[in-house]
Specification:
Blueprint (H helix, E strand, L loop, with lengths): L1 E6 L3 H11 L9 E6 L2 H9 L5 E5 H7 L3 E3 L5 E3 L5 E4 L2 H5 L10 E3 L5 H9 L6 E3 L5 H6 L5 E4 L13 E5 H9 L3 E9 L4 H20 L5 H6 L6 H11 L2 H4 L2 H17 L16
Parallel strand pairs: 1-2, 1-3, 7-8, 7-9
Antiparallel strand pairs: 3-11, 4-11, 5-11, 6-9, 6-10
Helix pairs in contact: 1-8, 1-10, 2-3, 5-7
Amino acid sequence: MTLSLGFSPCPNDTFIFDALIHHKIDTEGLDFKVSFDDVETLNQKAMKGELDISKLSFHAFAYVYEQYALLDAGSALGFGVGPLLISKNEYLANHPDHIDATLRVGIPGKYTTANFLLGIAFPHLVQKQEMVFSAIETALLNEEIDLGLIIHENRFTYMDKGLHKVMDLGNYWEQQTGCAIPLGGIVINRKLDQETKEKVNRVLRKSVEFAFANPKSGIEFIKQYAQEMSEEVMYKHIDLYVNKYSIDLGTEGRKAIDVLFQMAQERGLIKPIKKDLYLIPY
């Protein structure tokens, strides 16, 4: 059986999926047709129901949960892993209370969890420009935007380009909730039969466990899609986003996701949730 699968070219995703798509583990008779896309493209594809399995921002999941269920394996949650709001203007970095509604902010997508967190911390920032996450630093340097919301490996490169941190939105979330920050998860189309869905969850967990046991096994595959990232930065990225929650959400991981969705509903950012989010209910 061949299933369509979408995930990002970022090191945390290629690290997680390497063993699965290259059959380094028993895939229980499953094959995968893979597409690599940035997170917002994956979000948009899910809105159209294009993929059987996909990486997805948790914010975007709120719009497709009736069509997709969340797997327990493969998610990106953690502490100290949130998006950063940065600027070329050092004054803004030192005086975040002076940020006003006139400022232009580049975001990595409307439906990203990063944008949701930005809305919680700075609800008055409404002049948002959507762009591919890797283009945000350049837009700041060219003064096309005043603020940039960065995710993924850009956390490790912005300082080298003379840019400044205004706020770590992950830290902000942690202070507000005490929970790990839910960034993205792996969802599966509910139209598939239950046996297949549970099989995918098992196989993905095995893939993550294989990656942890053999961290260098997928190095060439990871490098292939890591742009010009050094190996050191690649593994910093992996260490940041791949952890115990990637093997299994567990009670803590599910609580963090539930809090995110509850806050979003309370603020009117998403409609009330009327269906269980998870493939395997509590």
